[in-house]
Amino acid sequence: MGNSLADANAFKNAAAQGQVGIDPDAAQTVLNKIRTGKDAIESLLQRSGDLAQAPKLGNNPVGNAIAAKVANRADGGGDSYAAALQNLFQQYEAAESGIVTAMARYHEIDQAAAEPFRNV
Known about the structure:
Layout: H1 4-16, H2 24-47, H3 61-75, H4 81-118
Helix pairs in contact: 1-4, 2-4
């Protein structure tokens, strides 16, 4: 499986360069689903800090170490829940931007493709 964020950014860049055009009417359903997903992820991100509470596993070296590790996995860096959500949010943003741009380019690409036939 490829890098989803890289794929979303590649699509966004292709749309920005006019390589991709999408019929706005056909893309509206997809765009609405992307925005719904993006809103849900944003809501989870806003609440992800609540997960950084260390569980009460007892006041001993093992319990303290595991509690710290669990809290870090929830809201820390790298492989944390918050980092995964942020990555997904960025994918949604890139896909949304690409689709909006491709929708705007659709008529431009359509007109350019029709131009050779107008002079016949």
